Amino acid sequence: MNGYIPPLARLIDEFAAMPGVGRRSAARMAFYVLKMTDSQANSLAGAIIDAKKKIKYCSVCCNLTDTDPCAICTGARRDRSVICVVENARDVIALENTNEYKGLYHVLHGVISPMDGIGPEDIRIRELLKRITDEVDEVIIATNPTIEGEATAMYISKLLRPLSVKVTRIAHGLPMGGDLEYADEVTLTKAMEGRQEI
Amino acid sequence: MNGYIPPLARLIDEFAAMPGVGRRSAARMAFYVLKMTDSQANSLAGAIIDAKKKIKYCSVCCNLTDTDPCAICTGARRDRSVICVVENARDVIALENTNEYKGLYHVLHGVISPMDGIGPEDIRIRELLKRITDEVDEVIIATNPTIEGEATAMYISKLLRPLSVKVTRIAHGLPMGGDLEYADEVTLTKAMEGRQEI
Fold it and tell me: Cβ contact (<8 Å) for A52 and B43?
């Protein structure tokens, strides 16, 4: 689609560059902006600038935060003996929403992926190693169950072993509500291997 | 999903308010903004402000424009004897992309829809009537083939009839590449009624 006047074309291009937004969605979003009041448009633009300006990485756990250290790292009720290692900030939110885990986090901001040219020094492993003090009893590695996630988990566990800290991996198995019949072979194998007495 | 820090939650809320953007897409877009460089984020915010500031309605045809009158209304090669009436600015772009129509446009910015409380005075019909001078030979009504679009077409054609101008309606029928077998009954009926000698 072309024929848009320049300021509109520019806005559509900006929206279309976002993940999961095609040109048609971008056009709908741009027309929505044109229908906004001036103050609504300013609020949207302000939210973008604001988020960029206020959100930083926590100097302890590398999670996204607007205070440093972040609210989790400074939380009075958090269990400081456990650190859960995740790939990105969205994983922290997913785990927080379970309302079960009360320990600390460490956000790697990626996984080791030689195919994409991402080595161990490109993610926040060094920062994790610095955090392993006598206070820490256990490190739970909660990277995704993908090839890169598994490799990263293996790599980190090897680095942590000499530091005499317990290293665990989140369980792999059938998702709740899932169906044995439709599960893939690897998941089923993992579910069998990880079986526990009831 | 909750647990986001306030500036991030605000940005997600802003994105999620857009048409066709769910909360998950909004979160992905917000994280994309955080990964942008400062100048990229400023460019995105600027495009929003800019579009709102620069884009106005053309005082002649009511289309979106950054000049007044718009480029189509002032175009030297446009046929000023034909006005095509459409529901919104996107319809103008769709018709312009055919590269066939060379006349002028009139954008109603909506259709008459009593169910939604939209009457004839809420859309740009008055502005259309003012444009019907001796120069204009034909008005093509190209509102959508929906109940509201048809009703609006009927309403406008009744108003225009006393002004001794030819009023036409775009053809309804099978879309090109469509399949008779899968066409709905109304479309088929319209296609039969609108048959032409070949």
Answer: no
